[in-house]
Design brief:
The protein is built from 19 helices and four strands. By secondary structure, it is an all-alpha fold. A hairpin with a 5-residue loop joins strand 2 and strand 3 (49-51).
Amino acid sequence: MTDETTVMMADAGLDSLQDGEHYLRAVTDMAERCHVVTQDAIYTDNGVKLVDKGARIDSRLYDRLVQHKLRAPIDSQLSMENVVDVSALEALARTQCEAAPLPRLLAQALGGPARLLAPLRHMPLPPPMAFKLTVMREQRPDLLAHSVQMMLVALFLGIRGGWGERECVPLACAALLHDIGVLHMDPVWRNPEYKVTGAGRKHLVAHPVTAMLMIRAQQAYPRAVEEAVLEHHERMDGTGYPRGLSGAQISPMGQILLLAEVVTAFFEKYTDLPAQRLSLMLRLNHRKFPAVLVGLVLPLLPDAPEAGADLAPLQSDAARCIDVLSGAFQAWSDQRERLPAQWLALPSGRACAFVELRLAALQKALFEAGSHPRQMAELLEYLQGDAQGMAEVALVGREALWQLQSIVNASQRRWPQVMARTDAADTAVADWCDGCGQLLATL
């Protein structure tokens, strides 16, 4: 294990690849509905036998398993029928190409699904990894659907970028497996009402590291797959995680994955105008994403709402988005004025400087696009009765709020200690983050 990996594990709160309580719970809960047996006896790391070979697994074994460090990962010691395999993944991908809006759009752009599906047949899928995907299918079907959809987006970007079928095989593996670390996260993260702040965000940062280590342990995938999975939440401007890489520091496959993740997320998150929202986001955030790859996506996305689209929800959003953005910008200005003259010399001055620079960049981008709250507020009185115009203002506002939330998240992730408010700079950042949370909660 490299020194860099050790540091990342420590930063993310990981001690080892030991199966955690949340994954063991998912496995044993799955075993209540599926026939899961031990193919080898399960031992603790100090040689105590916990479960005999051939024993049926069920939820009653959870307490015994979770109390001990196991000699080997649980995936390598269990077997079951109807495990996810390559043919099952291909069938799911084909169904998405026929029925899901985003994969269907990509398949049509390539003249059909054949080119998207071809690399799947050659993917290596070791039994422990197939078992994890089976747990995902049984316990988190939404996560498996997301992983397959992201795989199709990544393959589209690779194919349109000139990658051959052989080159696309590891790309398909990386995209499919990018979120296996999520299986080890507390299920509370699935609750949209759950708000994560401060040090709690390190558990979110952990999942790319966890996934990378699991893939490395299989010794079945190229190093490029490990790197890309680790990088799927990085950003070209250095604002991503877990390593804060930028530009060419991010591998070619990692750049595909980071864009594919965002493209997929927009179509999953928004039922109203996902393509238009995505188009706007990519154009307003051109420094965050690889320009060449973005150029492969934008031609597929309409800039304006399609005729007949229901714009009423967006119309009502316009004024509220402007109010929240204005409030957040003004709140930071107020906090900034209360700081001492030498605020950069304070221990938490870097966190303050980060918020200052990121907010300045956001306001500049909005001004350049004619979409700053002050500019949009002036437009509103002229747009009354113009449903499409109001909808476009709301789309811009929603995208700016997404960027605002990302600044709050990044501040808390990078400097969780500011929430202790030990000095003036700490207090400024912490109060501003809390205030933004209250403003965003009004939407």
